[in-house]
């Protein structure tokens, strides 16, 4: 179901919500809202999946039985906060990025953002724009792009090899941002599109953060070694005092907490054992969609593969 013809390239929130609502209506999908899956186990005698779910609206447990079970709960289920010596005694505010609302609450305060993905970079920009004394930790090499460069790359993917696209984008990014190594930002060895295809790691789409880093309005630090009260010590012995920490350190899957009998499909981290593109099918009618770390395009591939495989299974049962 394509977007309406007059949809802009960068879709506003309300337009996207309307699209999802229209999609549900068009295909007669019946979501079970306010329902939490507590366990899913395979009944080897009955040859079906038994899913116990908590209907919070009606305060009751519901049991679903299914020949096929598709795990599409995503890689990012709960907040991931790293273990840092001394964090438990930090007297200031320490929150995950999922709880962050606006930099207006931190004006004039010393704030450290941990994590330099898109969330971390955008939060750092928002904090600095609202008058916070902002620092960000950038430990790993990252690609910094504009949204226009990413769009160009996504267009060229249909016509050119990824390495050729990466070479072009890196040359253009150099022209836009210059050498960022002097500001503590280095690039990975592999280009942005090759890296995305192999690891699922996305480039950072700059919203103005790089400009503030260059002007020293956002300070860049390396790895934390320990926290002593409000004082945070970084690699190399440098120290600084902070009133708040925002952890833009991503999320992790909780699939293994409720899905049982999935030994052939998922590892201990709740992601597929098999490499892309052969990761989406398990045993006994079990599938996973969107766990292959390949973005929206990968999710679309998973969905089509799963639907076609289920159709073949049903057709074979009926013949």
From TrEMBL:
Keywords: FAD, Flavoprotein, Monooxygenase, Oxidoreductase. InterPro entries: Auxin_biosynth/cation_transpt, FAD/NAD-bd_sf, Flavin_mOase-like. It comes from the Eukaryota. Its EC number is 1.-.-.-. GO terms for molecular function: flavin adenine dinucleotide binding; indole-3-pyruvate monooxygenase activity; N,N-dimethylaniline monooxygenase activity; NADP binding. It is an enzyme of class 1 (oxidoreductase). The keyword Oxidoreductase applies. It catalyses: indole-3-pyruvate + NADPH + O2 + H(+) = (indol-3-yl)acetate + CO2 + NADP(+) + H2O. Gene3D superfamilies: FAD/NAD(P)-binding domain. Its cofactor is FAD. Belongs to the FMO family. This is Flavin-containing monooxygenase. It comes from Aegilops tauschii subsp. strangulata (Goatgrass).
